[in-house]
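Re: that backbone. Tokens:
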């Protein structure tokens, strides 16, 4: 090696002075993508890296506001930390470049100052975002929800994905979905107060309504009309939608998941009506459905699921008044309405188990009786998977015996799951 080159390498001048900042050489668009993964506070802090980064955050197409960065909680020093958080976000939005559109806006902030949070949301919506996520967490000491989604005319024209949590949504919101969100394809409502009775959209392909409350005094069911809908998830409490939920004009629906937290005020006839709108699905998950809602006895209007390939049942067929044989016959009756079904998954179905009941866990002998009832031949059903949590051998043996006798065609798989 030439002595001059060796001396230069040993001095370290090549590794420091001659090495360029490759990250800073990237175009703004790519750097904005990198910054979109950062919380707002960290994104602004990139301005100290170099002159290249100084004002880059002002034109970010994505903003993520999260009070947890400032450790704002429902505990001590909340006012001091909230003031710091409020000053930062107000400056962030004030110094943002007005000529740059906003692709994504996400906010997680409880309504410690409702007027301030509302102002932030309004300011961001004016940029016509394509993705909008608003999450207003609740603390025990907070007043009941009262923050509403602002309605700013054509500002929702580019909106494709909308996720709302702990907001009050009135009839104006329903009108917005119908006529003001012409590009919306993904809607998620979580723990919202829904003061409307109709969700109607011609563009919506994915809908999630999770533990929302309905305080409308109307006597009609909640109606979902979405001809382009492909995925539907409903988590329903017993104290909401007292007149049920109807799904209409959703022939494009492929996958549905319906979770009944409690069904005392959502009786079997409402559950059956909900099922009738899901006739086109290929995959269906049902949790805590009543047995009577899943039977086609004395009901000419019970749906036939011609497209269904996968069915998952959790905590179903738990009627204490029926024995296992009757429950299996009810299950077979339901499966007859899904002639193309290929896989069935059962979890916590057919029997209730309390781990504290020693007498129910141990049994010296198991009596497997001959079943003289109807045998159901589901020709395309290839697999029945039984998921279980606790080892109650006699109950599992009786269930497997009954399944094999009632449904002799498919294979049966037993899988233990861990909480």
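Recovered sequence:
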């Amino acid at each position: 090696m030439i002595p001059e080159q060796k001396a230069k390498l040993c001095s370290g001048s090549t590794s420091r002075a001659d090495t360029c900042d490759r990250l800073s050489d990237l175009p703004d668009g790519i750097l904005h993508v990198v910054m979109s993964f950062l919380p707002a506070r960290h994104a602004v802090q990139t301005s100290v890296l170099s002159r290249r980064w100084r004002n880059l955050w002002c034109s970010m197409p994505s903003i993520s506001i999260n009070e947890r960065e400032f450790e704002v909680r429902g505990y001590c020093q909340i006012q001091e930390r909230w003031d710091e958080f409020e000053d930062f976000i107000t400056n962030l939005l004030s110094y943002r470049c007005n000529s740059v559109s906003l692709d994504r806006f996400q906010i997680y902030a409880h309504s410690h100052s409702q007027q301030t949070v509302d102002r932030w949301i309004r300011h961001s919506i004016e940029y016509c975002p394509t993705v909008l996520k608003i999450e207003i967490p609740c603390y025990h000491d907070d007043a009941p929800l009262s923050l509403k989604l602002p309605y700013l005319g054509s500002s929702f024209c580019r909106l494709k994905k909308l996720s709302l949590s702990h907001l009050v949504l009135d009839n104006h919101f329903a009108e917005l979905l119908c006529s003001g969100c012409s590009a919306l394809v993904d809607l998620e409502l979580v723990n919202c107060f829904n003061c409307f009775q109709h969700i109607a959209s011609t563009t919506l392909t994915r809908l999630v309504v999770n533990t929302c409350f309905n305080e409308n005094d109307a006597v009609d069911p909640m109606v979902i009309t979405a001809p382009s809908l492909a995925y539907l998830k409903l988590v329903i409490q017993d104290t909401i939608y007292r007149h049920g939920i109807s799904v209409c004009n959703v022939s494009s629906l492929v996958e549905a998941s319906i979770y009944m937290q409690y069904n005392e005020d959502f009786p079997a006839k409402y559950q059956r009506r909900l099922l009738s709108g899901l006739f086109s699905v290929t995959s269906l998950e049902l949790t805590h459905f009543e047995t009577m809602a899943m039977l086609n006895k004395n009901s000419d209007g019970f749906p036939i699921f011609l497209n269904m390939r996968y069915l998952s049942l959790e905590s179903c067929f738990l009627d204490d008044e029926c024995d296992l044989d009757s429950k299996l016959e009810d299950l077979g009756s339901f499966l007859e309405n899904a002639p193309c079904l290929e896989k069935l998954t059962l979890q916590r179905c057919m029997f209730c188990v309390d781990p504290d009941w020693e007498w129910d866990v141990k049994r010296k002998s198991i009596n497997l009786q001959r079943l003289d009832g109807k045998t159901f031949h589901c020709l395309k059903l290839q697999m029945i998977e039984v998921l279980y949590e606790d080892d109650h051998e006699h109950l599992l043996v009786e269930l497997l015996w009954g399944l094999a006798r009632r449904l002799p065609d498919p294979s049966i798989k037993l899988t233990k799951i861990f909480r």
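Confidence is low (pLDDT under 50) at residues 5-18. Residues 318 and 350 are 5 Å apart (CA to CA).
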